[in-house]
Amino acid sequence: MARRIDAYLRDLVADDKFAFYETVRDFGDAEIAPHLLHWEREHQLVPDSCLRAMGELGLFGLPIAEEHGGQGGDHTDLVLMGLALGYHSQAVAITPGAAISLGAKPLQLCGTEAQKRAHLPALARGERMFVFGLSEPGRGSDAANPQVTAVRKGANWVLQGEKCWSTNARWASHVIVHALTNPAGPNGKRSTCFLVPMDQKGVFYQEMQGKKVWEQSSTGSIMFDNVEVPHDSILGAEGDGFKVMVTTLNGGRLFIASLALASLAFALDKTRVYAEERIQFDDKPIGRFQRVQDVIVDMDIALERGLTWLLHCCRLYEQNKLSREQAAKVKVDCSRTASDLLVLAMEVCGGVACFDEFGLIRHHNDLFVTRVGEGSNFALKDLIVRPLRQK
Questions:
Q1: Among this protein's residues, is 374 annotated catalytic?
Q2: Is the pTM of this model over 0.85?
Q3: Of the N and C termini of the chain, which has fewer Cβ atoms inside 10 Å?
C-alpha cells in the first residue's frame, strides 16, 4: 500500500533527502514491522541485533560531521528518520532519535574538541550511546532547577541525586547530567552539565518498571551516590547547564513532532483502507459515510499541514534561526492534533482497533508521550504565550 505521507514528502524535500527517507522506510518495513508484534507480546526492548543493523545503516551518525565519523547530515535527515521508523513504532524510532538529539547533539554543539574526538566516532557507529539526564522524581517541567547537585571538591566535582525517565539508559555508555552547581546564582546560571561514564563508581542504573508507552524503548532511573568527576567532564561551560539544556531540547522537540506525525500517517493509511474494506449496511463499505470521510479528510489535512510546518522549522533550526517558541508550537500542535484524531480513527474502525496486531492502539498509547515528552504541552504553552503578553 502506498503511504499518503510519501506523496507529501516527495514535494517537500530534495530528491537526495527523499531517497534517504525511502531507504530508512524500507529498512523499517523489512527489519522492524515483521518482528514488532513479537517484541511487544514478549515485552522485549529493541533487540541488540536491531541496534546493530541501525548502526550499520548509519542512523546513529546522521548529523555527526564526517570528520568525526558521521554521515554529515542535518536536522531534516533526523526528522525524516523519525517519520520513516515512527510509522511502525515510536519506541523503535526514539532509540536512535534520542541517541542523536539528546546524546550526540549536545556534544556536537557544546563539547570541546577533545570531547568530540574522544566520543563522536564511536557514537556515530552506534558502538557508544549517550543518555541525557534531565528529568527527576521531583522535577518535571521545572527542569531548569535540578535537585541533583554537583559540589566542587578540589579539582573535581561530586554529584549526588537521581535522574529518571532517561531514554536509552539501558544501552548508555555515558550520561549527560544536568546538575545544580550555584543555588544562589541568577536564573539560567545555576546549573552545569557533566559527562559521566555509566560505569563510574557510585552510578547506579535501574530500568523503570510498569511503563505502558514506548514499551520497546529503554527508560531508566539513574542514581548518583557521591560520584566524583574531573573538571574537564563539564559539557559546555560552568554555569551554562540551562543553555545546554535549551539548545538540546529545541531540536528534540522537532523530533518528537516527527513521531507524532508518523503515528498520524500510519493511522490515516490504516483507517482509509479499512473504511473501504469494512462492508456494512446494504453490502457497501463504511467509507461512503460522510462522518467517516470527515475523519479521514481531517487526518489528511493535519498530516500535510504538520509536515509542511515541521520541515520549515527544520530549515530554521539548521540556520540557527529557530526560536524556543517556534519549536514548542510545532511540537504542541503535532502531538495534540495527532492524538486527538487517532481516537476518532479508532472509533471509525471500531472494536478491531483495540487489538495489538491492528496497530492503532500502539500509536494511541505512544502518542501520549509526544504530549508530555521534551516538555509537557501545558508547560510549553506557558513558554509560547510570553511573547503574546508583551506590550
A1: yes
A2: yes
A3: C
